[in-house]
From TrEMBL, chain A:
Protein name (database record): GPI mannosyltransferase 1
MF terms (GO), sorted A to Z: alpha-1,4-mannosyltransferase activity; GPI mannosyltransferase activity
Broad class of where this protein is predominantly found: endoplasmic reticulum
Transmembrane segments: 32-51, 152-170, 176-201, 236-257, 308-326, 338-363, 375-392, 404-428
InterPro entries linked to this entry: PIG-M
From TrEMBL, chain B:
GO molecular function list: mannosyltransferase activity
GO biological process, alphabetically ordered: GPI anchor biosynthetic process
Species in which this protein is naturally found: Apiosordaria backusii
Annotated keywords: Endoplasmic reticulum, Glycoprotein, GPI-anchor biosynthesis, Membrane, Transmembrane, Transmembrane helix
Sequence segments annotated as region (Disordered): 352-371
Protein's name in the database: Protein PBN1
Physiological role: Required for proper folding and/or the stability of a subset of proteins in the endoplasmic reticulum. Component of glycosylphosphatidylinositol-mannosyltransferase 1 which transfers the first of the 4 mannoses in the GPI-anchor precursors during GPI-anchor biosynthesis. Probably acts by stabilizing the mannosyltransferase GPI14.
Pathway(s) annotated for this protein in UniProt: Glycolipid biosynthesis; glycosylphosphatidylinositol-anchor biosynthesis
Length: 434, 505
C-alpha cells in the first residue's frame, strides 16, 4: 500500500482533475494558497469580530464564549469552572487569565485549519493532492465553519479531534487512535459512537495486510471461532488505551473538582429537560411531557414517546450503521453515524451540524449528490428550505412572541427531520453502490 | 405588647390640640388627610405557639409587603420596594427550621417549599447588617393574611373591634413584619396610603402601652442637611389627658428625589422582552447636600418567570447603549435554561446602576417633560407550562429607583423611629448611603398597578392531542426508511438497483 506524503504531492493514484489549467486548478495545485486563504479568511472574521465587539452593542462573539472564558479564568485561578451554564469538562476551558479572551477563538480557528489539513491527508489516500484540497476546501473555506469558530464555539475542536482519530485509525496508529478516542469521549461524550465502527473496521486483514494468510477463512466457521477471530490484538489495544485515557481523565477531573464535575460534565445530560425550541423532532413532545405534571388540568400522562428516543438513535448510530457500513467505508460510516446521532437526538441545534460537516468532504467525492449535480442541488435546497421554515416559525416565537409551538414549529421540526432521514438514506445507499 | 399609631400629614399641615378629645380609653378627632401607620410590638411570649416556636429558631426574619396599587409616599415614610411579598431571612443555628409552611398558611399563595429550595442566598461578606437569604413573589393583597391574623389574634371572646381593625389591613399599602434574635421582639407595622383618615384610636387593653402621634415634616433652622424634622402632637393613651406638642429631628437614609418614572415592556416582547424605564429627570436630587456622589440605581426583584443574563449585562458598550452603567449586584447562579415549572428558587434580584444622559437644563430636578429619558433592561423569559390559549401572562413588579448618595464622612445614621430597613438594596450599600427615591407612576392601561405584564407564548394544549402519537409515527417512519436502506446495503444488490434506477431517471 502506498502512503501519499503528508502534503499529498506526488503521483496521484486515483482519479485526476481535468488537465486544462485554470485559476481554480492552480489555486489547488499547491497547499499554500488554500491554507493561506483559509487562515486569512478566519483572521478577517476574527478581526471583524473584535471590531464589532468593540464598537457595536450587538456582539459578534457568542454569549456562550463568555461563559467559556469565565470558566477558563476560574481554572487558571485554581478554582472550579462549574458555573450555571458551563456544561462540559473543565478541559474544554483553555487559556489563562493573562491571555486576552481572543486566545480561545484563535485556538478554535487553528483547530479548524488543522482539521482541514487532516481532512486533506485522509482524502489524499484515495486521490491526488489538488483534488483532495478541493474537497478539503469545503471545510476550510466554509463561511459557516469559520463563523462558528471565530464567534468562539468550541465545537470546532471536535472537528480536529474526530479527523485526527479517523486519520490515526486509517494509518493504523492504534495507540494514538485510542488516546484520541478516549480524550474525545471525555471532551464531548458523543464521539463514543465511533468506537464500534472503528473496532469493527479493525479486522486482522486490515491491520496486518501482509501477514494475512492467503487462505480465506472457510464459509462455515463456528460462532466461537468467529468470536476468537474477532478478538484481535489491535482491537484489544484500542479498547484498553481509549478506556484508560477516558477513565484517567475522569478520575483526574474528579480528584480536582469533586462531584460537581460529574454533575456538569455527564449527569447534566441525563437530568436536563431540553425543552427550549430546537430542531429536534422530539422538542415539542419534550416541552409537553416535562410540563404536564405541572399543569393541573391535564390528564395523567400515558406512555410518552420521548422515553424511547435513545433507542432509534443509538441503534442506528452505534450498531446498525457501523455493522453495515464501517467495513465498506469507514469515513462515510462515521459521517452516517454522526448524521443519525444528530438527526435522532433529543436536542439539535445548528452547532451540532458542525459535527458531521467535517466528515462531509470525505463522502462527497463518491456521492450521488455530486455525481448528479441537480439531485445534489435539490437535496441542498430541501435541507436549507426545511430549516428555513423552522427558523421562520422560531423567529415568530422568539422575537414576535407568537405561540407557534403548535402546529408550526412542531411540523417544521418533523419536516426537517424527514429531510434529514432522506439524506441519511441516500448517504447509506451510496456506500452500497460504491 | 406595645402599640404606636401615627398619622403623618404633609409638610405644613397640622391640627390644633384643642380639636382632639382624649379620654381614658382613647383619642378622637376630625378627619384629616394623612398616612396612617400602626405598629404593634410583641414580646416572644405574647405570640401564638406556632409562631413562637418558629421564631425561636430563627436569627432574622423580615417580611416586607408592598401593594401593587400606586401610593403617594409622605416624609418621613419614604422607603420604597418593588411591590409584592419580600422576605429577608437568616436562619438560626438549626438550619433545618422551615418557615415556609407557616408563610403559606399566613399569606395564602406564597409558593415557597423550604429555604434551601426556594430562597436565594445574599452576600454576607459586604456589610454585616444584611440577611443571608431572600425570597420574593408578587402578591396582590393581604386578604389571606387578614383572615389568618384574625384567627390568631382575635379569639371568639374578643370584641368586634378586633376583627374590624384587622379587616382594614386589606386596604393597607404596606406591611412590615420584623423579628430578630437580639431584640426577641416581633414588630408588625402596617401603613395606609395618604388619604382621608379619621383621627381615632382606642386602647386595646389597659395593659398595652399605646402611643398616638399626629405629625408632619418640619424644617427648623437647626436641621442638618441629612436630617428630617418632625413636629406634631403625641399622646400616650390612658396616661396623658391632653396631647403634648413635640419637635424633633433625626438623620434619615430614605428621602424623596422629587422626580418620577414609569416602566413598561417594549413590544414585541417575544421571549426576550426589554423593560423600559422612562425617567423624568437625569439630574440628581437638588436637595442632596452632595449631589456629585449620587448615582441612579434600579433595584429589581424578578420572579422566576423572567431573568437577567449577567454575561449579556457585562459589556460596557452594550450597557451604555441601554443607558445603563453597570451591574452592582445580581443573584448568583441563575439557571439560564430551566423552564419556570421546574425552577424551585423564587427568581432573582438585580441592582443596576443607570447612566443618565448629561442634563441640558438647569440643575433643578423638576418633572419637565423635555428632560425625560429612558433606560432599557434586557431580560429573558423562561418557558411556562402550557395553557388552553397558547399564552400565559407573567407579571414583573416595577423596580425601586433611587439615587444613592454618600453622606459626608462621619455622618451616622442611627435607627430612627420611622426607619424602614431590610429593604433588599440597603444591604448592598455602605452605612453612609442615603437613598433618594423616585416616585413610580403606573403606566397607561395598568389600572393604577405598579406591575408590568408580559404575554408569554406557551404550548397550546388544545392542539397538543396528536403530538405524542404523531411524533412517534414520524420518528418510526424515518427510522424505518434508514433501516430499509441499511438492509439494502447489507444484503447487497437491493440498494444498488434502487440507486441505479434513480440514476437513470
Amino acid at each position: 500500500m502506498t502512503k501519499p506524503s503528508a502534503t499529498g504531492q506526488p503521483r496521484p493514484p486515483g482519479a485526476s482533475v481535468s488537465p486544462t489549467p485554470s485559476l481554480l486548478t492552480t489555486f489547488f495545485d499547491r497547499p499554500l494558497p488554500l491554507y493561506l486563504s483559509a487562515a486569512l479568511f478566519r483572521l478577517i472574521f476574527l478581526l471583524y469580530g473584535l471590531w464589532q465587539d468593540a464598537n457595536s452593542p450587538v456582539k459578534y462573539t457568542d454569549i456562550d464564549y463568555l461563559v467559556f472564558t469565565d470558566a477558563a479564568r476560574f481554572v487558571s485561578q485554581g478554582q472550579s469552572p462549574m458555573s450555571e451554564r458551563h456544561t462540559a469538562t473543565p478541559l474544554s476551558s483553555p487559556g489563562s487569565s493573562s491571555q486576552p479572551p481572543t486566545s480561545g477563538k484563535v485556538l478554535f480557528a487553528i483547530a479548524d485549519l488543522v482539521a482541514g489539513w487532516l481532512l486533506e491527508k485522509v482524502l489524499a489516500r484515495s486521490m491526488d493532492g489538488p483534488r483532495a484540497r478541493k474537497f478539503a476546501a469545503i471545510w476550510l473555506l466554509n463561511p459557516m465553519v469559520a463563523t462558528i469558530s471565530t464567534r468562539g464555539s468550541s465545537e470546532g475542536l471536535l472537528g480536529v479531534l474526530v479527523m485526527a482519530l479517523l486519520w490515526a485509525v486509517l494509518e493504523r496508529r492504534v495507540t494514538l487512535a485510542g488516546l484520541l478516542l478516549g480524550f474525545g469521549v471525555h471532551f464531548k461524550i458523543y464521539p463514543f459512537i465511533y468506537a464500534p465502527a472503528i473496532i469493527w473496521w479493525m479486522d486482522n486483514e486490515r491491520m496486518n495486510p501482509n501477514k494475512t494468510k492467503p487462505t480465506k477463512p472457510p464459509q462455515s466457521t463456528s460462532i466461537t471461532t468467529r468470536i476468537i477471530n474477532f478478538i484481535t490484538p489491535a482491537r484489544i489495544q484500542l479498547a484498553l488505551i481509549s478506556l484508560a485515557t477516558f477513565s484517567g481523565l475522569n478520575i483526574a477531573m474528579y480528584l480536582i473538582y469533586g462531584p460537581p464535575f460529574l454533575q456538569h460534565t455527564y449527569l447534566h445530560h441525563v437530568t436536563r429537560i431540553d425543552h427550549r425550541h430546537n430542531f429536534s423532532p422530539y422538542n415539542t413532545q419534550l416541552y409537553l411531557s416535562s410540563s404536564l405534571p405541572h399543569v393541573s388540568s391535564s390528564s395523567p400522562p400515558t406512555f410518552q414517546i420521548e422515553k424511547l428516543a435513545f433507542l432509534p438513535q443509538l441503534l442506528l448510530s452505534t450498531i446498525l450503521i457501523p455493522l453495515v457500513l464501517a467495513k465498506k467505508s469507514l469515513p462515510t460510516a462515521m459521517l452516517a453515524q454522526t448524521f443519525a446521532f444528530v438527526t435522532f437526538n433529543k436536542v439539535c441545534t445548528s452547532q451540532y451540524f458542525l459535527w458531521y460537516m467535517v466528515l462531509l468532504p470525505l463522502y462527497l467525492p463518491q456521492s450521488n449528490f455530486l455525481k448528479n449535480k441537480r439531485f445534489g442541488l435539490a437535496a441542498l435546497v430541501l435541507w436549507v428550505v426545511s430549516q428555513g421554515l423552522w427558523l421562520q416559525q422560531g423567529f415568530e416565537l422568539e422575537f414576535l412572541g407568537k405561540s407557534t409551538f403548535l402546529p408550526g414549529l412542531w411540523l417544521a421540526s418533523l419536516g426537517f427531520f424527514g429531510v434529514n432521514c432522506w439524506i441519511l438514506g441516500v448517504i447509506i445507499g451510496d456506500v452500497g453502490s460504491q | 405588647m406595645r402599640e404606636r399609631i401615627t398619622f403623618v400629614q404633609k409638610e405644613g399641615d397640622s391640627i390644633e390640640p384643642s380639636a382632639l378629645k382624649v379620654d381614658g380609653s382613647g383619642l378622637s378627632g376630625p378627619e384629616v388627610k394623612a398616612v396612617r401607620e400602626d405598629r404593634l410590638t410583641f414580646a416572644l411570649d405574647e405570640l401564638p405557639a406556632e409562631l413562637k416556636a418558629l421564631l425561636e429558631g430563627v436569627n432574622q426574619l423580615h417580611i416586607r409587603w408592598v401593594s401593587p396599587i400606586a401610593y403617594e409616599a409622605v416624609s418621613p415614610l419614604l422607603a420604597r420596594l418593588p411591590p409584592g411579598f419580600h422576605l429577608f431571612y437568616t436562619p438560626g443555628s438549626d438550619t433545618s427550621i422551615n418557615p415556609c409552611p407557616l408563610l403559606n398558611k399566613a399569606f395564602g399563595t406564597v409558593s415557597c417549599s423550604s429555604p434551601a429550595e426556594s430562597f436565594t442566598t445574599l452576600p454576607t461578606d459586604r456589610f454585616t447588617h444584611s440577611t443571608t437569604h431572600q425570597f420574593y413573589q408578587p402578591l396582590d393583597s393581604l386578604s389571606a393574611f387578614t383572615q389568618f391574623a384574625k384567627s390568631q389574634l382575635c379569639p371568639p371572646s374578643s370584641p368586634r373591634s378586633c376583627g374590624t381593625r384587622l379587616n382594614s389591613l386589606t386596604k393597607a399599602s404596606q406591611l412590615d413584619i420584623s423579628y430578630d434574635a437580639i431584640s426577641h421582639t416581633l414588630r408588625l407595622t402596617s401603613l395606609w396610603p395618604y388619604g382621608p383618615q379619621s383621627l381615632s384610636a382606642t386602647l386595646l387593653s389597659p395593659s398595652i402601652r399605646t402611643e398616638v402621634g399626629i405629625i408632619s415634616t418640619a424644617n427648623p433652622k437647626t436641621l442638618e442637611p441629612h436630617e428630617i424634622g418632625i413636629s406634631g402632637l403625641l399622646t400616650v393613651l390612658g396616661q396623658s389627658t391632653a396631647p403634648s406638642p413635640t419637635l424633633f429631628s433625626f438623620p434619615s437614609r430614605h428621602r424623596d428625589a422629587a422626580s418620577s418614572f414609569t416602566s413598561k415592556f417594549l413590544s414585541p416582547t417575544g421571549l426576550h422582552p426589554t423593560l423600559q424605564l422612562s425617567i423624568s429627570s437625569p439630574s440628581p436630587p437638588s436637595k442632596s447636600p452632595n449631589p456629585s456622589t449620587c448615582r441612579l440605581h434600579g433595584y429589581f426583584t424578578l420572579p422566576k418567570t423572567i431573568f437577567p443574563d449577567r454575561h449579556q449585562l457585562s459589556d460596557p458598550l452594550f450597557l451604555s447603549s441601554k443607558n445603563l452603567s453597570s451591574v452592582r449586584y445580581i443573584t448568583p447562579n441563575i439557571d439560564l435554561e430551566a423552564p419556570e415549572y421546574v425552577t424551585p428558587t423564587w427568581g432573582s434580584s438585580l441592582l443596576l446602576e443607570l447612566s443618565p444622559p448629561p442634563s441640558q437644563g438647569s440643575q433643578g430636578s423638576g418633572d419637565s417633560k423635555g428632560e425625560e429619558w429612558t433606560a432599557q433592561i434586557p431580560l429573558h423569559l423562561r418557558y411556562l407550562s402550557p395553557s388552553l390559549t397558547g399564552y400565559r401572562t407573567a407579571e414583573v413588579p416595577y423596580p425601586a429607583l433611587f439615587w444613592a448618595c454618600t453622606a459626608e464622612e462621619g455622618t451616622k445614621f442611627p435607627t430612627n423611629p420611622f426607619e424602614k430597613d431590610k429593604v433588599g438594596y440597603d444591604g448592598l450599600f455602605g452605612e453612609r448611603t442615603v437613598f433618594w427615591h423616585l416616585t413610580p407612576r403606573p403606566g397607561d392601561g395598568t389600572n393604577g398597578r405598579l406591575m408590568n405584564e408580559v404575554k408569554v407564548p406557551v404550548l397550546d394544549l388544545t392542539k397538543a392531542d396528536w403530538v405524542n402519537a404523531l411524533t412517534g409515527v414520524v420518528v418510526a417512519l424515518g427510522f424505518g426508511w434508514v433501516v430499509v436502506k441499511l438492509l439494502g446495503v447489507a444484503f447487497a444488490g437491493g440498494g444498488k438497483k434502487v440507486d441505479k434506477q434513480k440514476k437513470t431517471q
